[in-house]
Amino acid sequence: MPQPECNLLNGTQKIGIMDVSENCNLKAAEQALECQWGTLESVRNISELPLQWTSGKKTCEVGEGCQDTLMIMENGPQVYLVLTKGCTTAEDQKTSVTEHRVGPGLSIVSYTRVCRLGDFCNGLSSTVPLWAPPPATVPGTLVGRDKYKYTLPQLKRVFLELND
């Protein structure tokens, strides 16, 4: 079947003692990656952490990599989670955990990774790399946290400002 930039030989041709033909199944030398895919935006009680999830899968375009992005905003007894997983044209990026703001009152931490190491290399499946349970309190100690300083719309606004 004729295809643009193919069938230059118009079928099999004899060149000297060789029979030469072309394969018009244009499959790039570089294969498209399979990546975990999904999104999550949720407000949870801190007692529900660490949180685990299962992702879908998606076939990327050739040349695209797989990405994981997770952001956790902790505000008193609640956390606001934003997760994206999927394909990206961004350059490879080693795993990066960034503390944007550390309490009291409001803590913001993010995790990012872009990879092209192989299928499903964006394997983040829990909040564990970003969140550890608070230390157990000993009777008579006081844990320094401001309570309920920020509303959910305020947390979303902070998130959007961090990503501008």
UniProtKB/TrEMBL annotation:
Q: Where in the cell is it found?
A: Cell membrane
Q: List all membrane-crossing ranges.
A: none
Q: Just give the chief location class.
A: membrane
Q: In its UniProt record, which GO terms are filed under biological process?
A: cell-cell adhesion via plasma-membrane adhesion molecules; cell-cell junction maintenance; leukocyte cell-cell adhesion; positive regulation of neutrophil degranulation; regulation of integrin-mediated signaling pathway
**CDD domains (alphabetical):** TFP_LU_ECD_CD177_rpt1 (cd23623)
Enumerate the InterPro entries for this protein: Fert-Immune_med_protein
Protein name per the record: Uncharacterized protein
Q: Which UniProt keywords apply?
A: Cell membrane, Glycoprotein, Membrane, Signal
- Which cellular component appears as one GO term in the record? plasma membrane raft
Question: Where on the tree of life does the source sit, at the highest rank?
Answer: Eukaryota
- Native organism: Castor canadensis
